[in-house]
Amino acid sequence: MTTTLNNNVSSVEAKKKLFGMVLAFIQSQCIYTATRLGIFNLLHTQGAQSLEQIAQQTNTHPERLYFILRALAHLEVLQESPERVFAPTELSELLVTNQGPSIGHFAMHLLEPAQWDAWKVLEEALHTGEVPFERANGKGVYEFCQDNDWSGEVFINAMSFLTDHAVDALLDVYDFSRFNTVMDVGGGQGGLIARIVKRFDCKGILFEVPYVAETAPAYLLQQGVERDAVKIVAGDVFKEVPTGADAIVMKYFISAWNDEDAMKILHNCKKALPPHGRIVLLQAFVPDLDEPKVAPDGIMPGVFAVQVNVAVPGGGWRTKKHFQKLFEQCGFQLEKVVDSQTNLSAMEFSLI
Ligand SMILES: C[S@@+](CC[C@H](N)C(=O)[O-])C[C@H]1O[C@@H](n2cnc3c(N)ncnc32)[C@H](O)[C@@H]1O
Questions:
Q1: Cα Rg for the chain, rounded, in angstroms?
Q2: Ligand 1 centroid to 95 CA: how many Å?
Q3: Is residue 127 part of a domain?
Q4: What is the average per-residue pLDDT within 62-69?
Q5: For site-directed labelling of 180, which of 36, 56, 135, 217 has its Cα 20 to 30 A away?
Q6: Whole-angstrom Cα distance, residue 282 to residue 265?
Q7: By alpha-carbon position, which residue is closest to atom 19 of ligand 1?
Q8: How far does the centroid of ligand 1 lie from the alpha carbon of residue 161, in Å?
Q9: Residue 190's closest CA among 151, 233, 153?
């Protein structure tokens, strides 16, 4: 028995839909390759260029490069005019990587060869239960990024981009002003904590692994954060979480870990908080069966969760109910859930 698609699309429409899904990787790869070659940066600074000019400046073979540039033009990422001249568009401007964190860093992080290698072993890893990224690369993503300068820099910028993309809409609907000191655990370069301290006039703590923490002072300065407003602490969340905050935020952090590790993190957070403290979990949440599958910014958390699961040790993105259960097992209770206009929602927990 076949199941008819819920909007009763014809088989033509169904095939069209599947073609789009099956061929989507070509679009991602064209974007990735052009970003890595610096083509969007080049067009951003120099304006429209001929195929030959682009090929010369990127040390590529023009006839082969043409396939990629033409495809990007068909996708409206570039604009092609006669004589094979290519100009930037609104989309290519968003992929520029030399003007601060952008969706270009996000594309490079998700599609870099080490990540792609993980997808290649997905089927085998499903049989063995391994983390595909670890099977393919012999180490975890965080360790890999620490050991490879380019990957590390791209990863940090990709995370900062995600913060820039979603945080203001979240802070419009979730108020941090009742806290004295907010600590961002696994807070990257500090984009979120910078916005919290500036907007709500509280103190901040940024807790990160050493190689990321090192990059934070310059980033915070650039964000206009006063020197003593955010204390930067380098460490390992599995060993100890610093005290001093009455609220802990974790954005896209706990989702990297399986339930067992997530519980260790929550126990360490609990030890670090005062009795009236709060944990604010910031995440995209995988929808339950009766919830919308697409977030307001177009991201499908249930689909994106596969990428997280391929890259890091399990768990991935969870449903709100799953997170609630996990927190309750560690002595927290849910106070409220706040959704925003992007994929990011907040779940606030108090200590029982
Ligand atoms: C997926 S990123 C999210 C970064 C940031 N919260 C955001 O949303 O942009 C996870 C972060 O956790 C940090 N991290 C990983 N392992 C950690 C550990 N054991 N202790 C503290 N931070 C850790 C990583 O360096 C990375 O910046």
A1: 22
A2: 23
A3: no
A4: 98
A5: 217
A6: 15
A7: 236
A8: 14
A9: 233
Inside any domain, residue 110: no
Condensed to tens digits (0 to 9), the pLDDT of residues 173-199 reads 999 999 999 999 999 999 999 999 999
Residue 299 Cβ contacting ligand 1 at under 6 Å = no
Ligand 1 geometric centre to CA of 235 (Å): 11
pLDDT at 306 over 80: yes
Structure token digits, residue 218: 């310059």
CB 238 less than 6 A from any atom of ligand 1: yes
Nearest CA, atom 10, ligand 1: 253
With a 6 Å cutoff on the Cβ, whether 256 touches ligand 1 is: yes
Q: pTM of the entire structure?
A: 0.88
Residue 295 sits in the same domain as residue 183: yes
How many Å lie between the centroid of ligand 1 and the Cα of residue 269? 15
Full residue range of the structural domain in which residue 17 is found: 11-99
C-alpha dist (Å) from residue 281 to 41, 185, 286, 345: 35, 10, 14, 8
In short, whether 241's Cβ falls inside 6 Å of ligand 1 is no
Cβ 94 vs Cβ 81: under 8 Å: no
What kind and span of H or E run contains 236? Answer: none
